[in-house]
Amino acid sequence: MQETRKESDRRKQLGSLQRLIRRPEVGAFSGMIVILVFLAIFAGDVVFNPLGIKNNLSIISQLGIIAIGACLLMIAGEFDLSIGSMIGFAGMSMAMMMKWGLPFGLGEATPMMAFLLTLAMTLFIGWIIGKIVVHSGLSSFIVTLAFLFILRGLTEVSFREFNDGSTQISGLPDFKQDDFFAYLFGGETFKWLFALLYDWGWNVNRIGNQWVGGLDARVAWWICLAAITYIVLDRTQLGNWIYATGDNKESARANGVPVNQVKIGLFMFTAFCATIFAACQVFDTNTADAAKGNLKELEAIAAAVVGGTVMTGGFGSVIGVIFGAVIFGLVQNSVFYISWIDGSYYRVFLGTVLLIAAFANENIRKRITGGI
Description:
Layout: H1 2-21, H2 26-47, H3 50-75, H4 83-100, H5 111-136, H6 140-162, E1 168-169, H7 180-186, E2 188-189, H8 191-199, E3 215-216, H9 217-235, H10 237-247, H11 249-254, H12 259-285, E4 288-289, H13 296-306, H14 318-334, H15 345-369
Antiparallel strand pairs: 1-4, 2-3
């Protein structure tokens, strides 16, 4: 009887280990640990000090915000290549309204008005993209590629038309100093934590003052979006609908899942994430540029894939995307910490890891589904 019980316990342990290995985020977590150890060995003194942590989390959270939108859409079996262009378009829209006022001479635009009007436009564009995809039968790859060019072209033309030929707007007032809404996007968060670290003697600069005041507001937006989407995917009917839509849309539709509405809503969600990304940039730097967001759609998709999201849909997790964003954010920033690494190796790393992750994710998917 005792041997049987031991055998039963061993099988349970093996079963738990197999379930853990099959988790979509395990590979990304392992990769993140490797990168952290590497940086700790070669650049630990600058990566893990208060300023290094702030700079790293700023880059990681930017990518994380749009990667979450890309992840949910990919789980539903679609792509959005217009995310990067949407960032540039949204940043242009907000900056222009805050500099020259509302359209049609309706007066000055506060940061809140500029953001809400821009969000209405980007959500509408996301709705149009979704409607075209679900009703035309065209691949989302083609439709969103078309909007990548359309939005980028409109952004550049609008900049030149209203900004004396320049594709940049700089010198905007620092709205976050006096406007609470602008501070929500461009200010600092977790200030209490860095004040506490200063009291403990760690967050201190060379002359004895507090070194870092807090993290960029975009970090808080990333955490909030990640928490909400994790709950939606794992705890709600909508999450089940998203997975079912990506796994087998015809079967999902037969079981009452509103497949078209789910996909349209997710295209709108990626537009929302791009707008949040743009707002954080504009209100932090008080500038806008037509080139903002260039190639960010590819980095967002790559972070989602490395995080365990399968490109054919129906498989992925928000936690994995968090790890994927951490990996790419740290590697992208490592060129500033380690002088003997050529910055171009970031793209080599990006492509290599993406290819490895795609093979690994597909292998995991086949094991779970029995090779289907």
